[in-house]
Design a protein that fits this description.
Elements (H helix, E strand, L loop, with lengths): L8 H12 L6 E5 L1 H10 L5 H13 L7 H4 L5 H12 L4 H6 L3 E8 L5 E4 L5 H11 L9 E3 L2 E5 L8 H6 L5 E4 L24 H8 L1 H18 L2 E4 L14 H21 L1
Parallel strand pairs: 1-2, 6-7
Antiparallel strand pairs: 2-3, 2-5, 4-5
Length: 269
C-alpha cells in the first residue's frame, strides 16, 4: 500500500471492502498513509481508518500551519499518534499481536538514505513510533528516532514496496495505489541545497531524485501488472484530492471509490 497523505482514504475504502469479505493476507507492507491505514486492517478494525481520516479530520482539524511553532509539523502529531490511538479511537493492540499477518512499515533512514522495513509484533510504543516515522513528510515534519536512528517518510525512497514483498517470497501480490494508471510526477528533480538536512547528505541525495525514482516505480508496477504477476487496485480517474486535502465531501467520495474498486476486483478474481 502506497501513501499519498489524504489520498490514502482510497486505501481505507479498499481495506474495508477486504474486511467485509473476510479477506486477509500472510504479509502486508505499507508506506506513510498506507502504513497507518494498514495498522487498522491488520487489527481487523473495520471503519477505523475511515473514521481517523474523515470524521476525526472534520471534528479535530489536525492539518494546518498552526502546529508548526510547537510541533514543527503541519500535522498535529501529538493528537494523531498519542491521543487518538490511546483514547479517542483506541487501537486494538491485542488483536494486532494475535494476528497471523506479518506487517511491515517502510521508513527512510536519514543517515543512509535507504529504505528500512520495520516490523514490531509486541511493543505498542515502538509500533506507533514506526508509523509516525513512516508518515513524517520531509521538510514539514520533524525527524523521528526509531531505535536511535533518525527516520522520515518511507515514500522518499520506496513509495511502492512491491520488490520488498517479492524478496520476502511472495509471488502473488495485491498492490493498492492512490493514483490512476498512467500518472507520472511532472515536477523535475532539484538538488537539495546543503543547508537543508546538512547532517544527512545521503538523505539529501535521496530527496534530490525522488520524482524520477517514483516514476520508475510506477512504470515497473504497470509492467508487472501487464505481465500478470501482480494485481493492482487504483483510482480509475485522475484525483482532485490533494495530499493535505480538507474537503470532507471529496474524501468521502474517494473512500467510496476505493470500496467500489475493491469490490470489482474481488468479483473479478
Amino acid at each position: 500500500m502506497e501513501g499519498g497523505g489524504m489520498r490514502g482514504v482510497f486505501t481505507c475504502g479498499v481495506l474495508d471492502a477486504f474486511l467485509d469479505a473476510n479477506i486477509s493476507f500472510p504479509y502486508v507492507v505499507g508506506v506513510s498513509a498506507g502504513a497507518c491505514n494498514g495498522l487498522s486492517f491488520v487489527s481487523r478494525q473495520r471503519g477505523r481508518a475511515r473514521t481517523s481520516n474523515i470524521e476525526m479530520l472534520r471534528d479535530y482539524k489536525y492539518i494546518g500551519l498552526r502546529f508548526l511553532p510547537r510541533q514543527h509539523s503541519i500535522l498535529d502529531q501529538e493528537f494523531l499518534f498519542n491521543e487518538m490511538p490511546a483514547k479517542l479511537l483506541p487501537y486494538d493492540y491485542e488483536a494486532y499481536r494475535n494476528s497471523s499477518t506479518r506487517f511491515e512499515m517502510v521508513t527512510t533512514d536519514c543517515l543512509t538514505g535507504k529504505a528500512c522495513y520495520l516490523h514490531e509484533p509486541t511493543n505498542p510504543d515502538r509500533l506507533v513510533k514506526i508509523a509516525r516515522a513512516s508518515s513524517s513528510l520531509p521538510y514539514v515534519c520533524p525527524v523521528v528516532f526509531v531505535d536511535r536512528i533518525p527516520m522520515l517518510d518511507g515514500g522518499i525512497v520506496d513509495s511502492i514496496p512491491v520488490l520488498r514483498a517479492q524478496e520476502q517470497g511472495f509471488r502473488q501480490n495485491v498492490v493498492v495505489l492512490t493514483r490512476n494508471r498512467g500518472y507520472r510526477k511532472t515536477e523535475r528533480d532539484i538538488r537539495v541545497p546543503r543547508f537543508i538536512y546538512n547532517r544527512f547528505p545521503h538523505l539529501r541525495e535521496a530527496l534530490s531524485q525522488r520524482c524520477s525514482v517514483y516514476n520508475e516505480q510506477l512504470q515497473m508496477v504497470e509492467r508487472l501488472e501487464d505481465e500478470g504477476s501482480i494485481y493492482v487496485i487504483r483510482p480509475e480517474r485522475p484525483l482532485s484530492v490533494g495530499r493535505m486535502e480538507r474537503n470532507i465531501n471529496k474524501l468521502i467520495a474517494l473512500y467510496d471509490e476505493g470500496y467500489v474498486c475493491a469490490q470489482a476486483f474481488l468479483n473479478k478474481v
